[in-house]
Design brief:
The chain is an alpha+beta fold. It has 2 domains: about 120 residues, Methylamine Dehydrogenase, Chain H (7 Propeller); about 110 residues, DNA polymerase, domain 1 (Orthogonal Bundle), CATH 1.10.150. A 4-stranded antiparallel beta sheet has the order 3-4-5-6, with no helix packed on it. Strands 7-8-9-10 form a 4-stranded antiparallel beta sheet. Strand 14 and strand 15 form a beta hairpin. The chain is elongated, with a radius of gyration of 22 Å. It starts with a strand and ends with a helix.
């Protein structure tokens, strides 16, 4: 870590403040500025050893030393050939690897033991199928709390009324080595169960090329581990297939969901998701 230090009237030097050595080779960094509750953090994507989280300590915030420092406070203890990383929320990071997988990691600040706080938890994982080499975070203002919202409501899943807020909040844009550009978003809690069940309902009615099961195709897969299906992962391309299905098929999907949605309401919701990109 370096700082710009004035040297005379017209020159500026780079002054080394602190160093940190990764396991193999750092391929990507994501820097988050300090806040009122926590210091600045740096996520380091290592070539083989996944993600490490560092905190920046300044001379004024340490009592044992008058120097700057980089301290590792958390790590994803897994073999992952990382290609890119970015911060998508408070104590939450999105990582991509060389085998086309995406993983959302979270630091458990409320862990009981120090080991719990040190281990990054897997929030979501799935297979994109392309190697991501650049991730650009998207900062969208948070919607107001539920109790402050006004306006129409809709009935979701269990028959309870929920305000018509955003279904998905964009979090990052992903660029792949093959020239693809994707958007990753966070699903609002009111719609998570609905979209997960909608995804399974559509997957059971669509014949993929080569009859490859959707769950197997999108499942996390590396040289050391292979999952049976994606974990807390919704495929937007699959969801959008609702717009091309016959009315009778969509009506059957609505009945399977049991959420009280009509064909028109379901298609309107999916059309809104499609317009995000």
């Amino acid at each position: 870590m370096y700082a710009l230090a004035p040297n005379g009237r017209h020159t500026i030097d780079l002054s080394k403040l602190a160093t940190y050595r990764t396991s193999t080779d750092p391929l990507s960094l994501s820097v988050s500025p300090s806040t009122s509750t926590q210091p600045a953090t740096i996520a380091v994507a290592d070539l083989m050893k996944s993600i490490s989280i560092l905190t920046v300590t300044s001379p004024s915030s340490t009592t044992s030393s008058d120097e700057w420092g980089l301290t590792e406070v958390a790590r994803h203890f897994a073999t992952l050939w990382s290609s890119a990383v970015t911060c998508i929320g408070e104590n939450e990071w999105l990582a991509a690897d060389m085998e086309g997988n995406l993983v959302v990691l979270r630091r458990n600040m409320g862990g009981v033991t120090e080991d719990d706080k040190r281990r990054l938890e897997v929030v979501s994982e799935g297979r994109l199928g392309e190697v991501v080499n650049t991730i650009v975070p998207v900062h969208v203002p948070s919607p107001p709390p539920t109790r402050e919202r006004t306006g129409p409501t809709t009935t979701i899943a269990n028959g309870s009324a929920h305000p018509l807020g955003p279904v998905i909040v964009p979090k990052a844009f992903l660029a792949t080595v093959e020239g693809g550009v994707y958007m990753l978003g966070s699903i609002s809690s009111s719609f998570q169960d609905l979209l997960m069940r909608l995804q399974n309902a559509i997957a059971g009615r669509i014949e993929a090329p080569g009859y490859m099961p959707w769950a197997k195709y999108r499942a996390f897969k590396t040289e050391v581990r292979e999952a049976d299906e994606p974990y807390r992962f919704v495929d937007g391309e699959l969801i959008e297939m609702v717009l091309g299905l016959d009315d009778l098929v969509v009506e059957d999907v609505c009945k399977e969901l049991g959420a009280g949605l009509t064909v028109e309401e379901l298609r309107a919701m999916v059309e809104g998701l499609r317009r995000l990109h």
